[in-house]
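dumping these here so i dont lose them again. two proteins, back to back, each one seq then structure tokens. dont judge the mess
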Amino acid sequence: MVRTASTPSLSVVIPVYNEEESVGLLHERLATALSSLGCDHEVIYVDDGSADGSFACLQAIAEADKSVTVIQFRRNFGQTAAIAAGVDRARGEVVVLMDADLQNDPTDIPMLLSKFDEGYDVVSGWRTDRKDPWLTRRLPSHMANWLISWITGVKLHDYGCTLKAYRREVLHGFRLYGEMHRFIPALAAQVGARIAEVPVKHHSRRFGKSKYGIRRTFKVLLDLLTVKFLSSYGTKPIYLFGGAGLLLIGGSWLMLGYIVARKFLFEEYLVESPLLLMSVMLLILGCQSVLMGLTTEMVVRTYHESQAKPTYVIRRVLDGGR
């Protein structure tokens, strides 16, 4: 990105949904924290179809503070969509995400930004002293964090903490759908981002009620499968479908060999064994899986070549020492 005099170095993106009692206090604290940094900045609030007076409050904030941009959705699209809209609008070299419910603390932003001097591309907040109910929020979160870390290979204690900072360039190699905002560190790791995790403060909710429910857990699990597929097999799907197909075909031949051996050793009729039908079914499924892998390979190549989308990401180029 070409820097100009009006281009901020820091963008703060905040999704808002029915937080009319919180946004005023949040902006006061945020303005104080950002003023201490001494850098050009912008704050982007994304009103995710709020049904209360949140947009009116944000409108008043934007009129009083020229560094504020407010995006209003026509309806509620979800937190991931709100974050994606804010990131698309952001112009800063560094993008900070945080919640609007006053549970994240803006005074932690300078600490997050200081880690970039150590060469990190993503700095994730870790709510070590979390102020949420243990059974309904913290226990499912601990289980989800362990599962996500294990499957993606990106070890973080708190994927659910929205307070995170990113170098802008690591946010441009993927699009966000569903509930995938919590997987941004794992997606950024695919393009070679260096990731750090730091403890941050967490406050009890003062106004309103949480928008998170147990139903969201199932959505997260399904999105996790998507992330795993894209990270491991996004450019070579034949490894997944073809590998599964070869296993099924191999199992089919082993089963067929077993029933043929029993035919000669014990004079059993092949048609009397249910294993014959199972062997044929495995052979058909295996062939279909291999063909699906080949078809998906063609789709992947069409996707990359039609958009001139590279299969690699360059951090920097040294040309004659430059």
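---- next one ----
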Amino acid sequence: MEIPTIDLSRAEYEEPVVIDQLVNAFETVGFATLVNHGVDSTLIDKAFAASKKFFSLTLDDKLKYAFQGHKSNRGFIAPGSETHDLEKDCLPDPKETFDIGKEDESGFNNYWPDELNDTTFRDDLLDYFSSMDRLHLRLMRMIAVGLQLPDPDFLVKRCNDRHENLRLLHYHSLPPEHPNKMIRGNVHTDFGTITLLVQDDVGGLRVKKPEGEWVNIEPLSHSIIVNVGDMLMRWSNDRLKATLHQVITPPRFGPEDRIPERYSIAFFCNANKDTLLECLETCRNENEPAKYPPVNAHAYLTQRLEDTITSKK
């Protein structure tokens, strides 16, 4: 089974077919590639341009905007600071990241670097954030319909407070002798409801299929990769799959090659902070009782981040 491609524009005239495609993808491999998804391609290009602006700063400048802590989940994370909690003995990821959360949230503030004082950096990323938030809610409604929840807006009502993270990712170019040359991002699942990812043309993302085989997700210009996170898997009682994935050196590069830098942008979607993640009523019965105890969404996310990201805060 390859990763399915879903044309969201078809939902305008045959929504039940598209919903079936989406839920089937999530029930099997946990991933899909979205095309004609409604996010302007120019906006995606602007987000990549903003990412390259930030990562072109010196390390000292980027460290001025260091990760604020797990509850905030904002700021710069330097290479070697993140080790996925599924693999405690692996080498830390060599990537660097910059996280942006909900703007004007009480008690938390985004960093907007002084070195990038033109308003386009902030404005373009906030526009991107808003567009991805709309797509998140659109997909959550489709999922609710696909799971036959009595209220089609049940999930939307519990995911509509913009408790999301826009993460810019930069994988440095690596020499042949680098210890992380082949594994650029360790095996993991994502923590939230769904993730919406765009990647450049370098590639390297791969997914572990249910039967154990790894399959590459080839870059497709301006497409959006969507995958199930652990929150949604818990909510659906494992009906929807949060699938293991990683970033590797693409197979076209040999052991003697220098690996080019890579950029991607992940939009990590989460349930509202006060939401209780409790098994959905249509995903449990006498033969399949709830597998997970109820848990507060923000407490769950914070704990997963504490297990993954090195921080003194």
